[in-house]
Write a structure and sequence with these properties.
The protein has three domains: about 220 residues, HUPs (Rossmann fold); about 80 residues, Tyrosyl-Transfer RNA Synthetase, CATH 1.10.240.10; about 70 residues, Structural Genomics Hypothetical 15.5 Kd Protein In mrcA-pckA Intergenic Region, Chain A, CATH 3.10.290.10. The protein is about 45% helix and about 15% strand. Helix 3 links the parallel strand 2 and strand 3. Helix 12 runs antiparallel to helix 15 and helix 17 packs across helix 18. The chain starts with 7 loop residues before the first helix and ends with a strand.
Length: about 400
């Protein structure tokens, strides 16, 4: 069957959008030109360790780039690192990560795939678990693999180098991680590998090792690390500066509006599906004095639409206008059935899944971020008297109706 690929220039324009580096770019052009000539898709690899069960739009940056390769006709290969997750990727870490059990990685992998499927076309996706080959390697296989680099080179890594200089322990098993990731590329015969900028060392090592295994080295494409809602730190659930892939449309829309103005064009580039020309126009308009608030509403609409639908994005925009501008209470809010009329408010909002932990609930209450019937509650240790149909507001956009039998 003859595939109809976009032209070389068309493919390169789509691939270049938002990328940090293509190493080396001329090799990528040659690979694409050959794939068009031979009518054979390239194998584009993305590895993901299921070390956590939840994903956010920061993870979505590289997943969207893999989707781009799918859309232009290439074969996406998603490596689920069920084996490497037991080691723990040391990239960007200043200490050894706690090890996961094989059972934990398997459970997280299920959730990872479900969420990645929000972005990727799962119908044509090749999914592989790297335990498939790493678990079968003999000690002789491992020695052959490790012989392709040196300790000196490993210590060139920024994270290892800093830890070594600061006297922070580096476990031997962490040194094996880049080799295991490199062997994934050999196992699936990768033509291109995607990753964040923090993965650059591992991706480069894979190129070298592929040569030693008589394979044509893969081209590397690195994507920027997306800043979170605070505009400073990497998006992270632990820092509570994230937008989850499974956030409800209204929450996603509202959170996007809270990003700093200086991140507007970066979010358009890395998170939205707009073209480079459309983004350049938005950037130009902002430089000429367009109100950043209006650009943020466009951004919130585009991102919400890309994860849900146009109707969902419109409804989220309407809900935000009603809630924030008109200061109304939404018509459709979740209900929570109270088993007692005398209960801790922190327990209620945690049990109702309005927050991720009781600690977060207590912090919000203490900071004045929780109110009942528009009156702030700031003491989380005191039990409160609940009345039927009381309305609890949590943060800026979450509401809960309390039901007492």
């Amino acid at each position: 069957m003859i595939k109809v690929f976009p032209t070389l220039n068309e493919q390169m324009d789509l691939i270049r959008k938002g990328v940090e580096e293509i190493i080396p770019e001329e090799e990528l052009e040659k690979k694409i030109a050959k794939s068009i000539k031979d009518n054979k898709p390239l194998r584009v690899k993305l590895g993901a360790d299921p070390s956590r069960p939840d994903l956010h739009i920061g993870h979505g940056v590289v997943l969207k780039k893999l989707r781009t390769f799918q859309e232009i006709g290439h074969q996406a290969v998603l490596i689920i690192g069920d084996f490497t997750a037991m080691i723990g990727d040391p990239s960007g870490k200043n200490k050894t990560r706690p090890a996961l059990t094989f059972e934990e990685t398997k459970e997280n992998a299920k959730s990872y795939f479900e969420q990645a499927g929000i972005i990727l076309n799962t119908k044509g996706l090749e999914i592989r678990n790297n335990s498939e080959w790493l678990n079968k390697m003999s000690f002789g296989d491992v020695i052959r693999l490790l012989s392709n680099s040196t300790i000196a080179r490993l210590l060139e890594r920024d994270d290892f180098s800093k830890r070594y200089k600061n006297g922070v322990a580096i476990s031997v098993h962490e040194l094996l991680y880049p080799f295991a990731q490199s062997y994934d590329s050999i196992a699936v015969k990768s033509d291109i590998e995607l990753g964040g900028t923090d993965q650059k060392f591992n991706l480069l090592l894979a190129r070298d090792i592929q040569r030693e295994y008589n394979q044509i080295p893969q081209v590397i494409i690195t994507m920027p690390i997306l800043e979170g809602l605070d505009g400073v730190n990497k998006m992270s659930k632990s820092l509570d500066n994230y937008i989850g892939l499974t956030e409800k449309p209204n929450d996603m829309y509202g959170k996007i509006l809270s990003i700093p103005d200086e991140l507007i064009t970066r979010y358009f580039t890395l998170v939205s599906d707009l073209s480079v020309d459309e983004i350049d126009k938005i950037k130009s308009d902002l430089e000429e004095g367009k109100n950043p608030r209006d650009a943020k509403h466009e951004l919130a609409f585009e991102i919400t639409k890309s994860y849900y639908s146009i109707d969902d994005a419109k409804n989220a925009a309407d809900a935000f206008h009603k809630l924030v501008i008109k200061k109304d209470i939404p018509d459709d809010i979740p209900e929570y059935k109270c088993l007692s009329e005398n209960i801790l408010l922190a327990d209620i909002i945690f049990d109702a899944k309005m927050v991720s932990s009781k600690g977060e609930a207590k912090r919000l209450i203490k900071q004045g971020g929780v109110s009942i019937n528009k009156e702030k509650v700031t003491e989380f240790l005191n039990k409160i008297n609940i009345k039927n149909n009381d309305i609890v507001k949590i943060g800026k956009r979450k509401f809960l109706k309390l039901i007492v039998d």
